[in-house]
Amino acid sequence: MTIRAALFDMDGTIWNSPVDWLEVRRAIGLPRDGRPILQHLAELPPKERARGVRILHRYEAHGVKNGTLIPGTCELIRFLRDSKVKCALVSNNSRRSVEGVLARHDLPFDLVMSRDDGAFKPDPEPFLIALQQLNVSPEEALVIGDAHLDLLAAHRAGIKEIILVATKEWMRPLLPSDIYFHRAGDLFEVRAIVTGLLRPRANS
């Protein structure tokens, strides 16, 4: 099946944020159990949830202000677009954070989605909504992320081609062993993997 769309995560994938998400969990008082911070916040009593959201927003703002674009991002997106592959950014960050990053770097995404647009990963809905808007089926899609949340969301959405890049050591035990994905050390290695996926396969 031809790859017609690439769905990108943001933090840790194309954006090098200085935010330590384990530190964020400690600041809010959340366990390190693999579930997203957003899910924990939704389960807290209103007063505690409001406090947690304020802490999260503060760290996210710091990440936007002090982060940097990961090397290879522009080249990878340009390569995909030149290959007639649509590109979407699908992030668990807030709309404000996503727009803050894109205000600093004019990346030519065909579609941009944040947690403020609905569900968040590992729910498959963000990927499914993005693909619906791009008029692309899950079988024709590729996900490029760095975390177990990207892997789970892609798998649940029926997306077979998944690349995880530079996954942090503490996240690795959270990666399900029964879901296949490509591993990459950086975005230049991602491009090499994508090149192979886009190459026409000989008929067997």
Outline the structure in words:
It is a single chain. The protein has helices spanning 21-28, 37-43, 46-66, 73-82, 95-104, 125-134, 148-156, 187-198, and strands at 5-8, 15-16, 68-69, 86-90, 111-113, 141-145, 161-165, 182-184. The chain has 204 residues and is α/β, with parallel strands linked by helices. The strands form 2 sheets. The protein has a 6-stranded parallel beta sheet, with helices on both faces. The chain has a two-stranded antiparallel ribbon with strand order 2-3. It is globular. The two termini are 14 Å apart.
SSE layout:
Elements: E1 5-8, E2 15-16, H1 21-28, H2 37-43, H3 46-66, E3 68-69, H4 73-82, E4 86-90, H5 95-104, E5 111-113, H6 125-134, E6 141-145, H7 148-156, E7 161-165, E8 182-184, H8 187-198
Parallel strand pairs: 1-4, 1-6, 4-5, 6-7, 7-8
Antiparallel strand pairs: 2-3
Helix pairs in contact: 3-5, 4-8
Class from helix and strand fractions: alpha/beta
Give the SSE string. Answer: EEHHHEHEHEHEHEEH
Task: Give the biggest sheet.
Answer: 6 strands, parallel
Count of individual helical segments? 8
**What CATH architecture of the largest domain would you give?**
3-Layer(aba) Sandwich
| Rg from alpha-carbon coordinates | 17 Å
The CATH homologous superfamily of the largest domain: HAD superfamily/HAD-like
| Largest sheet strand order | 5-4-1-6-7-8
Number of separate strands: 8
How far do the termini sit from each other? 14 Å
Summarize the amount of helix as a percent range.
40-55%
CATH topology type of the largest domain:
Rossmann fold
